[in-house]
């Protein structure tokens, strides 16, 4: 239906099952960015959060990009305001005698992307950091957990911005240990946005696309999944031969992202009918933000 009207519907794996089923393509942040970059659609309905729709608008400038709910934000994007970042970059430059390169996790605003040298996602972050000259100082924004994991796995000593995902931050290592004791055969997967204690207690630390790949390589396995709750729907769709259990947080049993949850079936229908609300990026921000995204797509 949407295709007939020239609308491509993209959805992140953290959207609820109805929205995933309604989309032409479901993926992680990197796959969705690539889909937008390759798209020839006249319009893109982006079912995810605001920074993801902005990314689609940057990479597919000819398309009208719109979302079911304009208020679907992200705690990581909110934690890093462009003006504060610019001040901190200046401060580091005078402290180090050299301006650090800024690597921004894609979970940030277009204005922050415009101040960054290169973007990364959870799926390509290690390769992006390793693509930079080894002696150059790096400022990594905005996720301190992903940044910490990158420092551990690449041996770099990047300066880290103090942001966190409000969903993954609450994952509890105690609850995870209890689940592991109850399911000793289970394989634990955790997203790099999880705190270090949770990552250290996991068999694999990887983004959502990596989780789907590992699941697809197993038959009859049980997985404890340390990421947003709707990912279980996606895992069951792609690799139904396994069992998936959510590794819940200390104070939240559901692990659903409240921002992703703002997109409902009714709002999706209304958005497709009206081709709105639109997401647009001002021209002065769009140029440098797009260049930082394209540098990422050139790496992997
Ligand atoms: P992915 O990079 O796995 O798509 O994750 C995006 C995200 O928002 C995680 O909270
Ligand atoms: Fe942002 Fe966390 Fe929601 Fe992902 S799960 S969109 S990082 S608040």
**So what's the CATH class of the largest domain?**
Alpha Beta
Per the CATH scheme, the topology name of the largest domain is: Rossmann fold
Shape descriptor reads globular
Helix/strand/pairing class, anyone?
alpha/beta
Distance between the termini: 33 Å
Question: Whole-number average pLDDT?
Answer: 96
Heterogens = 1,3-dihydroxyacetonephosphate, iron/sulfur cluster
Q: Count structural domains.
A: 3
Rg calculated over all Cα atoms? 19 Å
Major sheet details? 4 strands, parallel
What percentage of the residues does DSSP assign to strands (E)?
15-25%
* Annotation field: number of helices: 14
Q: Helical percent range?
A: 40-55%
DSSP E strands, number: 12
Order of helices and strands: EHEHEHEHHEHEHEHEHEHEHEHEHH
Fourth CATH level, the homologous superfamily of the largest domain? NadA-like
